[in-house]
Design brief:
The protein has eleven helices and twelve strands.
Length: 317
């Protein structure tokens, strides 16, 4: 059985790598003997989906392409599946070892372990232990959002995704069509950077605000992917980290510790309130709303108005 499956996977990989155009399920079934022997369409579909997932897990980049008449096809472009020679020194191998130990989820841990095995096969010296240099470190990056894994796979496979997203000042989510570029963790939250087809521009999405399932779509990216996606810098600018102005707020005593950490001046007002001066930049209103009744904006007037508008939008929902 193991030999039969390995042969089936090899035949499927050769078909996908050897074609110049996307092949439909029907064409793949007619080309591979094991698929012809499947007892029913349901059996074939289950077998094909498992095989496709197994090949992707092994590192084959398989594209899903939808034609103008709605038929879905598959192919593996040679330029997307060609690796340059791999040469790693001890420090680079140690960095990869740390990366492999980061993930807490079982599926991600397995993928990381498999990646190290592939590097061994590609020429990583046997005397280099990627774990040994930093064996005392146990890094962890928690991932609680259900959207993380499908978005990670979509970034890897360059597949467009569709999801419902609720902005901080919106009562209801909106459907977004996104070409995903990169995921990054910033201050305990995961963010996705990509091209928003509905807005026609680059956007950054906080994963905790994605509602429902992330759905994948076929077709190639329409916007060029930048060489370096600066998710952290973009999020920081939207959160007011690069601010060159100041805002004055009232903050309830014992609350809002992140705001207190950013404050350039603090004055006790009494009656359970403090007055803080904090940096003011684009996106500060969305952050202040998260603290609810513990924050009152004093100035500037436009920031106060923005916060009030956001609170009213939330109240209407």
């Amino acid at each position: 059985m193991a030999i039969a499956k390995a042969e089936r996977l090899m035949n499927l990989a050769l078909c996908l790598l050897g074609t110049r155009r996307p092949l439909s399920k029907r064409e793949l079934r007619e080309s591979i003997e094991a698929y012809l022997e499947a007892g029913s369409d349901d059996s074939f579909n289950r077998m094909f989906e498992r095989d496709k997932d197994d090949l992707r897990e092994l590192g084959l980049v398989i594209e899903t392409v939808e034609s103008l008449d709605g038929e879905v096809g598959y192919l593996a472009r040679r330029d997307s599946n060609r690796l340059p020679p791999i040469t790693l020194d001890a420090e680079e191998a140690a960095a990869l070892g740390l990366a492999a130990k980061v993930w807490q989820q079982a599926r991600l841990a397995g993928a990381a372990s498999g990646a190290l095995q592939k590097l061994r096969a590609a020429g990583l010296p046997e005397d280099v232990d990627p774990y040994e240099a930093h064996s005392a470190l146990e890094p962890r990056i928690p991932v609680h959002e259900a959207a993380f894994e499908p978005l990670m796979l979509a970034c890897r496979d360059r597949r467009t995704v569709v999801f419902d997203y609720r902005k901080a000042n919106a009562a209801h989510p909106e459907t977004r069509h996104v070409e995903p570029w990169a995921l990054e963790c910033w201050r305990g939250h995961w963010y996705l950077a990509g091209f928003d087809r509905d807005r026609g521009a680059e956007r950054v999405f906080r994963l905790s605000r994605i509602t429902g399932k992330v759905r994948s779509r076929g077709g190639r990216f329409t916007a060029p992917v930048p060489d370096v996606v600066t998710v952290r810098e973009t999020v920081a600018s939207w959160a007011g980290e690069t601010a060159d102005h100041s805002a004055l707020i009232r903050l309830r005593s014992g609350a809002g510790y992140p705001l207190r950490a950013k404050a350039t001046a603090v004055r006790e007002l009494g009656d359970g309130w403090d007055e803080l001066e904090i940096p003011y930049g684009h996106g500060l209103d969305a952050w202040l709303v998260e603290f609810g009744p513990d924050v009152v904006v004093l100035e500037p007037a436009e920031l106060r108005a923005d916060v009030v508008d956001r609170l009213r939008a939330v109240a209407k929902g």
